[in-house]
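Friendly challenge for the regulars: who can give me the structure tokens for this chain first? No prize, just bragging rights.
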Amino acid sequence: MEIRNILVKYWGYSSFRPMQEDIIRSVMGGKDTLALLPTGGGKSICYQVPGLAMEGLCLVVTPLIALMKDQVENLKNRGIKAAAIHSGMHKREIETAISNSIFGNLKFLYVSPERLQSSSFRENLQRMNINILAVDEAHCISQWGYDFRPSYLNIADIRKIVMNAPILPSQPLLLLQ
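First reply, four minutes later:
Bragging rights claimed.
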């Protein structure tokens, strides 16, 4: 499906905000792309639209459980198959989300950077058809120092597993000022 049709169908917008379409087209071209937009500027759409347009699963790394839950609920309300894996879940729920990710029953999977360090998750990740690796709130990598969330520094290690998927870090422009 064409990206503008996806935008209209799932979000009800007739056009993209400034820079969104450029970012989306870059990602769909297979390029690693930095999404640097103002707070509230629609960074999530920059990985959600191509995630829907491309075959496979968009893996989203995000720092907060509340943010994961909010994003997943928002996507589900739009009729988009999404799940999150976080520390507050039962083992069976995690297994179901991983199985759905492997067998193509999801379009979006949200995880914490710490989850990427799990050897069992990495083994399962190799069986998933990842189309985009989105790093939401990428400023966490360095904004509060290396000891804030050390696991953010290890996200690059996942590149070896998802070699063909473009990486899309996004961060609010406001924090750079």
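The chain has one domain: 3-176. DSSP finds six helices and six strands in the chain. Your move, everyone else.
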